[in-house]
Design brief:
By secondary structure, the chain is α+β, with helices and mostly antiparallel strands. The protein has one domain: Alpha-Beta Plaits. The protein contains 3 helices and 4 strands; from the N terminus they run βαββαβα. Strands 2-3-1-4 form a 4-stranded antiparallel β-sheet, covered by helices on one side. Strand 2 and strand 3 form a beta hairpin. The longest helix has 13 residues.
Length: about 90
């Protein structure tokens, strides 16, 4: 089980949305990786804290993408989404 303190530390998340995203829409998610899985797109990112995770979720909403799931998968530092990149790309 994950301790409450670990929820405030950097972690890797997979955000699954319905549909296959074109490069134009994926460009809105700077600093993330993506892959297609059937009729879904999985956006993977390491986020430094919950405010950045909320920003990613808000981007999904703003683009009108049907959200399928959000899954915390592991701690990892290879992909880091910064607060600044989320603000700059609107």
């Amino acid at each position: 089980m994950v301790s409450p303190e670990s929820w405030h530390s950097p972690a890797r998340y997979e955000i699954k949305v319905e549909g296959l995203l074109r490069d134009q829409r994926l460009a809105r998610f700077e600093g993330v990786a993506s892959e297609s899985e059937g009729r879904w797109t999985i956006i993977t990112a390491n986020v430094p804290d919950h405010s950045v995770l909320n920003s990613l979720i808000n981007k999904v909403r703003d683009l009108g993408l049907p959200l399928v799931s959000i899954k915390r998968v592991e701690k990892n530092n290879s992909l880091v989404v910064s607060k600044k990149s989320l603000v700059d790309n609107g």
